[in-house]
Amino acid sequence: MKVFKFGGASVKDAEGVKNVAAILHTYTQHPLIIVVSAMGKTTNALEKILSLYYANQNYLAEIDKLKKYHYDIMRELFLELHPVWKDIDDVFATLINELKKKRADDQQYDQVVSLGEVISTIIVHRYLLNQQLIAEWLDARNFIVTDSTYREGKIDWEATEEKMQQIPTILQRKKIILTQGFIGRSREGLTTTLGRDGSDFTAAIFASCLHAQSVTIWKDVPGVMNVDPKRVPDAAIVFDELPFKEAAEMTYYGASVIHPKTIKPLANKGIPLYVKNFDDPSLPGTKIHECKIDHLPPLIVFKDNQCLVSCKVTDYTFVSEDQMRSIFSTLSELNLRINVMQNSAISFSFCIDFRQDKIAALIKRLHEHFEVYYNTGLTLITVKNYDAKTFEKYHHMKGALMEQVSRSTLQVLVKL
Ligand code: ASP
């Protein structure tokens, strides 16, 4: 069995959905599990609906916009009397209902934002059936068990693996299973999400629990590249293959081509991961697996929306290990991860992803012990395996606020 993952960009319009069906037609000899994300920018739109609702602004107009976006796609795929219209109306009714429930913010976020994947999989499933692709629609929440960390559900692997035992029997009946990325269910019975862009991880969870032959992530790029071609078009090359370790490090530094949690479950089971282009499936793409490559070219990763926080001691003592421990435990309690850090005699600075909802709480807590300064709107550039040319280009950049060089990696935090 193979696992395929189609992201939001691959199903952003009716042409995209048709293309998914066309790709699947060429793989009919294998049992397939297809993981699909919300269409286009639906998840962002659902986040916006939530914030408008909280701000007492016109969220209904935004819901209508999102409905129209999906209706436009459906109009190109289905006749007027097709049952899909009622299915989708029902999901939008659930959305309005969920908004009105009194819940903690993160819990409500998951009940609302998860519906993007429910909508997209209903549409794609109905379309596949119309195309004689006999697929079963599965609710991923019945299989992926998480704890109650809403917005960042942690997988209960044992419980998930147990639930997935039913899947091989379903695959004997239907050759294709279609399910949602990004979502699971907590033990208390509520929907959870696995973190933004988490659908790749969903594909890896299914593959790992079911010992799949491989996972393929279908993307709008020809494979994994050494740099985002939109940023540095003249330096971009596609890797034919990459070791798991290298791919994992790339995602750690912020390469958005694969979600950071995807590699580990696959590497642990030795399941290869292919990144292929959905516009031209004949391209070879990149194979990520256990292999050794002697000379990798410089790999450049841009991570935007970074925030640099500096904690300065106030009483002319030096920064102590105890003070650092208190900073680390505050970060850990707020579920914030340091991307790069540096200390001097009287201050400790670190760079984190900027999260509007967390930054105020962080500053307040740190302020109890330190003078705190922060800058937002920064980009963290990481050059792994740098050579003379890339070192020259990114070292001492104008607007740099922090720079670190190790034997193989250069990192620069910069206001671009
Ligand atoms: N739809 C979710 C997001 O946009 C998950 C995903 O696309 O992987 O974050």
UniProtKB/TrEMBL annotation:
<keyword id="KW-0418">Kinase</keyword>
<comment type="similarity">
    <text>Belongs to the aspartokinase family.</text>
</comment>
<feature type="domain" description="Aspartate/glutamate/uridylate kinase">
    <location>
        <begin position="2"/>
        <end position="277"/>
    </location>
</feature>
<keyword id="KW-0067">ATP-binding</keyword>
<keyword id="KW-0808">Transferase</keyword>
<comment type="pathway">
    <text>Amino-acid biosynthesis; L-threonine biosynthesis; L-threonine from L-aspartate: step 1/5.</text>
</comment>
<dbReference type="GO" id="GO:0004072">
    <property type="term" value="F:aspartate kinase activity"/>
</dbReference>
<dbReference type="InterPro" id="IPR045865">
    <property type="entry name" value="ACT-like_dom_sf"/>
</dbReference>
<keyword id="KW-0028">Amino-acid biosynthesis</keyword>
<dbReference type="InterPro" id="IPR001048">
    <property type="entry name" value="Asp/Glu/Uridylate_kinase"/>
</dbReference>
<protein>
    <recommendedName>
        <fullName>Aspartokinase</fullName>
        <ecNumber>2.7.2.4</ecNumber>
    </recommendedName>
</protein>
<dbReference type="InterPro" id="IPR042199">
    <property type="entry name" value="AsparK_Bifunc_asparK/hSer_DH"/>
</dbReference>
<dbReference type="Pfam" id="PF00696">
    <property type="entry name" value="AA_kinase"/>
</dbReference>
<dbReference type="InterPro" id="IPR036393">
    <property type="entry name" value="AceGlu_kinase-like_sf"/>
</dbReference>
<keyword id="KW-0547">Nucleotide-binding</keyword>
<dbReference type="InterPro" id="IPR001341">
    <property type="entry name" value="Asp_kinase"/>
</dbReference>
<comment type="pathway">
    <text>Amino-acid biosynthesis; L-methionine biosynthesis via de novo pathway; L-homoserine from L-aspartate: step 1/3.</text>
</comment>
